[in-house]
# Entry
Amino acid sequence: MTPVTVGVFGLIVMAVLIMIRVPIGCAMGIVGLAGFSILSSPDAAFSMLGMVVYQTVSSYALTVIPLFFLMGQLAGQSGMGVELYRAVHRWTGFLPGGLAMATVGACAGFSAISGSSLATAATIGAVALPEMKRFRYDDALATGCVAAGGTLGILIPPSTVMVVYAILTGQPVGTLFIAGIIPGIILTGLFLLTIFLWSRKRHGISHPDSRFSFAEKWESLRDTGSVLLTFALVVGGLYGGWFTPTEAAAVGALIVLVIISAKKRLTWKLLAGSLTETALTTAMIFAILIGANIFGYFMTLSDLPATLTAWVTDTGMNRYATLGIICLVYVVLGCILEGFAIMFLTLPIVFPMVTAMGFDPIWFGVLMILLIEMGLITPPVGINVFIISGIAKNVPMATIFRGIAPFFIAILICVVLLFLFPQLALFLPATMA
# Structure
């Protein structure tokens, strides 16, 4: 067999392993090691294995992952998300769908300190869903806005998905963070507009007891101050060139720790729980990264990415049409695979093709994250949907997916805007210090 044939066969075997629920890191590692052995020798493969494991776990750049996870865990377990939701509600309560708008606003704010879609959906959903049920919100709207709002956790910086993309593609983490700000604001605005139109047309949700005085609104700003301070220092420090991504993550974790200590919420139980969850999640990500790096060496040796890139270039197909096909593939994969799995599986092959066609890698990173967001709320996998289903136990899955449909369209509109206007993602990075 030719090296390219071995590469294609390896992809098929890995797809089978994933379908039978072999962990993604193990599947990539097994296929990568076996394929490398076939194309070179078992001795060379095991030598590569030792090198990859050491280089991955000793990489200074990867220290940003546990630090951002720790920041999000401390913020979530200390109740900062609850404070944020109540504060935003005081400013949106008088609007049609005000509680749902507060949910999306709180998700956007919490995304700025959590970096995780699942953590955002779970934290805000736990407080928002009971409130919307109390005011008799339609179940579809209530669950849909939480599931969709949670997706902002991987677009608004700091985002752990952006960190992984940067590591896999060799792009600067800080630049990716800044690139996600404007698309994140636009998508938040589209979600709010979706809620407003839905509420006005079908529900007319606006409750007199959801109105607050200006004094109450002003007082609520104290609850958002901690989140705004953390976001300003972390992202502002990156934008201004004051911090490296690792330093920014450390500063963010320290600020959250100081804030919850000042509010007398820091307990040994909270600290131990946050550290434990951070360690478990970090270990999972590192295991997948090791498998992905092994698989990447195999793909490089098979010459499959270069062959596909040359084939796409030689066909003369319009590069935007080619990118459109790639985006469609990502949407389909989002229906059956989790976001991290999609990145690890496809980037070794897709990224060389995209850059060879002349697309900006930072812009493509933001575009890819939007496509992964679609997968987070798309059946049958829809990780965010399962999180919300666990909180809203009496709401059928079909109802949740029905509620998500308008928000899916909002994400699609954001994708189209980013496709047509790349500067939405590239303007701020171009002005960085």
Remarks:
- The two ends are 51 Å apart (CA to CA).
- Residues 268-302 form the longest helix (35 residues).
- Residues 61-289+305-430 form one domain.
- The chain has a mean pLDDT of 87.
